[in-house]
Amino acid sequence: MSAAKPLSNRDVRRAPLLDARAATRCPLRTHLMIEPPEHVVEQPLPVDVLVRIEEGRAFEDQVMAEVAAAVGDLPDLTGDEAGTLAAMAEGVPVIAQAELRDHAGRRTGRPDLLVGLPHPTTDGRTAYMPVEVKAHLVTAGGKSGSLGPLRACAHTDVAGGIDPATVAEVEGPWTRKRPDDLLQLAHYHRLLEHHGHAGPGWAGVIGSDRTLALVDLTAPTFQSWRNVSGRWSTLEKYDREFGFRLDVAALATDRVDGLTDEDPLVVPARSSECDRCRFEGVCAPRMEDADELTLLPKVTWDVRQRLHASGLTTRSALALADPVTLPTNAIREAADHARVQTSGVSLARVRGADRLSLPRADVEVDVDMESTPDGRVYLWGCLVTDTLDGASSRYVPFADFSADLDDSAVFVEFWDWLQGVRSSAIDAERSFAAYCWAGGGAEDRYLRLYGPRVGVDVEAFIGSPEWVDLHRVARAHVTTGGSLGLKVVAERMGFAWRDDEPGGGQSMVWYADAVAGDNRQRQRLLDYNADDVAATRWVREHLARTWEDLPRVEDLTPSA
After folding, report:
1. pTM of the model
2. Torsion region of 476: left, alpha or beta (phi above 0 gives left; psi -120 to 50 gives alpha)
3. If you average pLDDT over residues 207-220, what whole number do you get?
């Protein structure tokens, strides 16, 4: 597939070469990296982010060493563009740490691996597919995904040559939704295309379980209201995103060089990058002053542009809009978030929720898990409550803090205990329910990961009324006007964690110390996990007590 038509006629020849992260990076950050504002205070990255980076590099080194051992000869071409081009011209089967540039397209990139494909390009050159190494899961069981055809094999299979067409399609697991991974691979595909060595559109990610997941970059994948067909391929999405950031970079360059006084193409907008961006202190006040729409949950740049086109340019304006006139359920939900944010209340009933539907039982177990940066669960924590015995509770953890973590054994111990509690309740003719706060589906995903691995059928339990996602219950009943994370919801209901820095990111830092033998950090992790399961119980009981007293979102009075 050839590159899409540029989005503008702007001359980009003076723009800097943009790397593989450009298409997913905040476009304003792209501008500010070229034309930084005065008096920017460099903010250090959060410790948990630094831990993830270090873990990711260590994992990449391990995987590359394993691939090198399988291939037999895997020279490192970091920084060697001429060597990379010569290796491709020679048809070297597997190339590591390639260095590629496309000055006409203003691209630069360093794919971890280039893997030769069995069928050459139309002009007889060796075709390659890019492969990246990522310290996270790239497959997860359970439900069908939307990332197009997925095929998977062992990561060391690259040594024998891979033909994606002959690799079996995966049944059950699906590629986890990592748009950053896909757009990064699309960047490398365009670089290969520039040099005449691109394949038909396959690319790969080696995940933390050493699985090489192959994805089709030409398959319809990304949804957008701007596309008549409803979906773009990864390459189409990449071309649009990269092309826009290239325009941003070109204008920023012209401004720095005094060739134009045109306003920047972008304004501050909230994104997942903000918390780890050195310009956050510059953008945050400007977003508040502008009453920026992207401060609302799930209002992406595309949604923001659609709202602006309809004359709704601020949170206050969206809060005052008649829901009947809003085009989608997601935008109507965003309007209700705006009503909460501009009315001053901390919690309200969602629109249309007139009755509380909250499953309860005689024996209740709250479940929360903690995982390593590479996606292995080292702790399953449970709070078991006998609601008929004065609501007495006890915390039961299943953990392994050793350097040679046996995560499957931890799961078996947890699962056997949970099913034992369930069986005892049933034998006593008492009802049973287990609860989790699975906003991102983590608990279900890990049950489905470990169940088949240890020969346990988890599907019947996951699909039963006895397994309750309290996040889903909360989402159907209440809104904070923002996040529905457990920390936010429970704290607004009056719960307090014992630790001053509770959070999954921080727990990864504590875990590294715990593995190194720090018993205080081990206890800190157990206390943090115990508070998490206590918080889910708190939310459940608070909802049962106060539901009737919560204001309805449609009755709130937003500020003008």
Report:
1. 0.77
2. alpha
3. 89
